[in-house]
Design goal:
Elements (H helix, E strand, L loop, with lengths): L8 H10 L4 E2 L6 H4 L13 E4 L3 H13 L4 E4 L12 E4 L6 E4 L4 E5 L4 H9 L15 H6 L7 H4 L6 E7 L5 E4 L5 H10 L5 E8 L5 E10 L3 H11 L7 E9 L14 E9 L3 H12 L4 E10 L4 H4 L8 E8 L4 H11 L9 E6 L21 E8 L8 H11 L19 H5 L4 H14 L14
Parallel strand pairs: 2-4, 3-4
Antiparallel strand pairs: 1-2, 5-6, 6-9, 7-8, 7-9, 10-12, 10-13, 11-12, 11-15, 14-16, 15-16
Helix pairs in contact: 7-14, 8-11
Length: about 450
């Protein structure tokens, strides 16, 4: 049985002597800022927090927690927590070093680094990482959860291009994990995320990408059906160096929202193309006439400016989220989606997104890894506000959208979009059964006491 009681003061003094970073306990004034999450619906109540400054701090914290039978969770940027932590929390936001090797086209990325720092460092060499739709997300957690972004249909999952992982396992040992040193653990961590230890750094491939022809078209609510049906026919015709998604958005009546979109239901088509701008413009042409365009924001962008494609929220807020994978989009799929979440339906949702997968995402990695989702043609992701008055309602409403799409769901999921599916039984469904079983075998080997049991935990 793992212990979650507050440790004795003498033991905490010993912990402070073993780490360079700060150690906080309940009542310390610095603790709320240290443990703040992007999803403010998740409020941690940790027994002890270690603000790690390097891999040695992480290893010392894990050894101390194991000796006290205290479960351990890790938080870098605060984007990924899905369950509150009531034991030890190791924060890695102070570990922010990025080193780019332009000759090898690689980047060494510490645990607290956000994608923007990697993008900026790589851009000076005409290179880019396989980052996601938001540059403020932590690079390590995103990558080890699989990781899909604007370049993924061309190059694959971010996890496919991890070359090494520095990992502190439950025994408090820092391991340099590669395909040669520990092939089974290397397979599992690349897609199994935080179930096997705390990654203090990763080394990843970079790619010769400087610009994209990219952006978005916002369509009026009256065009929702026409746009979705057009997208259903158009997306499969795109080459692998093009990426697309379409989202049903209920925009807030905020001054920060452009006037034509403010307080409106809109359909947002997102598009990017790695190639000549003229070719990208030609590929996008069929969708420009699919409905009434309210606002167009498309053009050639430096890779560092591609946050504007998806325009993900940048301010912390309380949200509920969950995702799935679609094997196809049919006429009936579109009709089911409109009936569940279209402009004629009054539902407290922020977004329902369908994102195109396929291409390199559908092919095996070399060496293989545990990244989930290769069988999906599209991902579907539902996001809803979750302040206290809506906390009980939105899981029902959001779940109903996914239920409506059940005939087209693969049953598997992208790990980074599991959202509130947090029980080991729910998490296991992200992968095919044989992969899930193999992951639990690795977990039992490296973490037999289930020290790392927070987040999307697979259990043992």
């Amino acid at each position: 049985m793992l212990n979650t009681d507050e440790p004795p003061a003498d033991d905490l003094t010993a912990l402070r002597s073993q780490v360079r970073g700060p150690v906080y306990t309940p009542g310390d004034p610095e603790l709320p800022a240290e443990t703040m999450t992007f999803n403010t619906a998740i409020a941690h109540q940790p027994t002890v927090v270690v603000g790690a400054t390097d891999a040695d701090d992480v290893a010392a914290a894990v050894r101390w927690a194991a000796a006290h039978q205290l479960p351990v969770a890790v938080q870098a940027t605060g984007h990924s927590p899905v369950v509150p932590v009531d034991a030890m929390l190791v924060t890695t936001n102070r570990m922010r070093r990025v080193t780019v090797d332009p000759q090898q086209r690689t980047a060494h990325i510490e645990a607290g680094v956000r994608w923007q720092a990697v993008i900026d460092e790589a851009a000076g060499h005409g290179l880019a990482p396989l980052s996601g739709s938001s540059s403020s997300v932590g690079a390590v957690g995103y990558t080890l959860g699989g990781g899909i972004g604007l370049l993924s249909r061309e190059y694959g999952f971010a996890a496919d291009h991890v070359l090494s992982i520095d990992l502190v396992t439950a025994d408090g040992r820092l391991r340099h994990v590669t395909a040669e040193t520990d092939p089974e653990l290397f397979w599992a961590v690349r897609g199994g995320k935080g179930n096997f230890g705390i990654a203090t750094a990763i080394r990843v491939r970079l790619f010769p990408v400087a610009t994209l022809y990219a952006g978005g078209l916002f369509f009026a609510a009256s065009s929702a059906a026409d746009v979705l049906h057009a997208y259903r026919s158009w997306a499969p015709t795109l080459p692998e160096n093009a990426s697309s998604s379409v989202a049903l958005l209920r925009m807030p009546p905020s001054e920060r929202v452009p006037g034509p979109l403010r307080g409106k239901f809109v359909v947002h088509l997102r598009f990017s193309y790695h190639g000549p701008a003229a070719d990208g413009e030609y590929l996008l042409t069929p969708m420009r006439s699919a409905g009434a365009v309210v606002l167009e924001q498309v053009g050639e962008l430096p890779y560092g400016a591609t946050d504007m494609v998806h325009q993900d929220p940048t301010d912390p807020m309380p949200v509920w989220e969950r995702g799935g994978l679609l094997h196809s989009i049919e006429v009936d799929t579109v009709e089911a989606l409109l009936k569940a979440a279209g402009p004629e339906v009054e539902v407290p949702l922020i977004m329902v997104e369908i994102r195109q997968l396929g291409g390199a995402l559908s092919r095996p990695a070399s060496p293989p890894n545990a990244a989930s989702g290769r069988e999906g043609a599209y991902s579907v992701y539902v996001l809803a506000p979750s302040p206290p008055p809506l906390k009980e309602i939105v899981p029902v409403v959001g779940g109903a959208v996914l239920d409506a799409l059940q005939p087209w769901l693969t049953g598997t999921k992208l790990v980074n979009f599991l959202g509130d599916a947090t029980t080991p039984q729910q998490v296991a469904t992200a992968w095919k059964p044989d992969v899930s079983t193999r992951l639990r075998t690795v977990k039992s080997s490296v973490d037999p006491t289930n020290l790392f049991r927070f987040g999307h935990a697979i259990g043992i």
